[in-house]
Amino acid sequence: MKDPKSQRGLLILVLGSLTTIGPLSIDMYLPAFGGIARELDTEISRVSLSLSSFFVGLAIGQLIYGPLLERFGRKKPMYIGLIIYALSSLACGLSSSVEELIVFRFFQALGACGGLVASRAIVRDLFDTKDMAKVFSLLMMVIAVSPIIAPTLGGFIATAFGWRYVFGILAGMSLLILTGGYLLLAGYDRINPGYSLRPRAIATNYLSILTDRHFIVYAMTGAFSSAGLYAYISGSPHLYLELFGLNEKQYGIVFAVIAAGLVLATQLNNRVLRNRSSERIVQLALIGQCVIAVLLLVDVSSGFANLYFTTGLIFAYLFCLGFIFPNASALSLDTMRHTAGSASALMGSLQMAVGAVASAIVGILQNETGVPMAGVMAVCGGVALTLLSVGSRRMPVASSAG
């Protein structure tokens, strides 16, 4: 690591805070959908479009920030993004129609992208491959904890003060994160004034990254593997609320237990990295994920699915993801020494795009069973394993992978 050891913990805390903006923005206002629909005189299905517009903003915004991070350094674009996020969050809270909320959520996502892309680029700047995997494990833990805390916190705020205060608190959090970043990143930056912002140059740079075998294999492996998480999030309400007959409180408990699998795996990953390379961990975890996905598909297809057994399989599936995602992310950025900002943006955009498609397919194929969710999870794991197996055959092993 290239920064003083005394600031390592605080730096990771700030990076984790930047990373959690996206998950908090997604999960915190979910319990307030009913209240939003009533106050804005619309249907919950219309309110859910504000979630879709946020996903679109995340996919597009990351591609925009990549070149800006290269040209102007990590800090300025990140600060501007956080300010855009804060203002958009306030605008969401002041929305007088669902259409306004949908639009402002898009801009809120654009602002969130500044921190998301910058945090990954900074990790690449300051850590070698094995340490990158460890830091990404910590960041993944933050992402995994968010679904446990955010809906409960958001529900409490919406019940006590109203849904508009949820967005006000998100705005305040972004300003606190901006302050922490400003203080801890003083003196650090990686500016390239010669980097061209012409559309053709940007497209050429992204194309060069896409043609890097090391990047594309691990970025797409991580994207498809993590898309199984989006499939689960999309299909789990129907599975647990409709098929298993749980109430909202019970569903929240199950959701938290499953999310704990990600937290546990990301922390175990740091220990496993002491004796295993990131490449080997990804390979073994993907094999495990595919086996578990097949068992889950057979389970929900049988007509005799059991709440505890099914939950255990989903827990195990996401447990494997806790090993795959941080290592695949670190490996995909390993060769991106001079284009870490653009590579980080492209990686995030690919992950969001694949995840959004997986989520949409579950909804389209919904047939009052758990098969669409489990089927998409299985396909995602299978595609990820195939990409890794085929793509890595002629790919040199990263020198720093350990």
What order do the helices and strands come in, and which of them pair?
Layout: H1 8-27, H2 33-39, H3 44-47, H4 49-72, H5 75-93, H6 98-126, H7 129-160, H8 164-184, H9 199-210, H10 213-243, H11 248-272, H12 278-301, H13 307-333, H14 340-364, H15 371-391
Organism: Neolewinella aquimaris
Subcellular location: Cell membrane
Family: Belongs to the major facilitator superfamily. Bcr/CmlA family.
What can you tell me about this protein's structure?
With 402 residues, this protein is mostly helical. It folds into 2 domains: 1-131 and 146-189, MFS general substrate transporter like domains (Growth Hormone, Chain: A, Up-down Bundle), CATH 1.20.1250.20; 212-391, Growth Hormone, Chain: A (Up-down Bundle), CATH 1.20.1250.20. Helix content is 80%, strand content 0%. It is globular. Mean pLDDT is 84; it is low at 398-402. Pfam families: MFS_1. This is DHA1 family bicyclomycin/chloramphenicol resistance-like MFS transporter. Residues 11-393 form the Major facilitator superfamily (MFS) profile domain. The chain crosses the membrane at residues 47-66, 78-96, 102-123, 135-159, 165-188, 215-233, 253-269, 281-298, 304-325, 345-365, 371-390.
User: Which shape, going by the Cα principal axes?
Assistant: globular
The structural class is mainly alpha
Gyration radius, rounded = 20 Å
**Terminal CA distance:** 15 Å
GO molecular function: sodium:proton antiporter activity; xenobiotic transmembrane transporter activity
Organism: Neolewinella aquimaris
Domain Major facilitator superfamily (MFS) profile: 11-393
Keywords: Cell membrane, Membrane, Transmembrane, Transmembrane helix, Transport
